[in-house]
Design goal:
126 residues, 7-stranded mixed sheet, 4-stranded antiparallel sheet, 11 strands, globular
Amino acid sequence: QVQLVESGGGLVQAGGSLRLSCAASGRTFSNYAMGWFRQAPGKEREFVSGISRSGGSTSYADPVKGRFTISRDNAKNMVYLQMNSLKPEDTALYYCAADRVYNDFVPMRRVEYDYWGQGTQVTVSS
């Protein structure tokens, strides 16, 4: 089992920044690719960003490219999502997820991820 706990969400004005953090525990963190997903009210949960187990590869959804940056610290069992130039349409519940992998790639589909956190709310006001 892997336990994931997100933090760092909050209320911010459009154009502002937030940094989400996800603390992992329970298994060897470096065996897992990590992802961030989000779900707005009435919408499906969608992929935001992912990072390979080594941190050498990253992937971003088109709406956040150039604004969000994912990173990880395997020594601290942490993954981060730096969000800049936030827009009202970024408002959602943000989830951290982990996928046990055997190669250094970035899963992008929700069904590939095995473990999920409880989410942290991000609200961007206009």
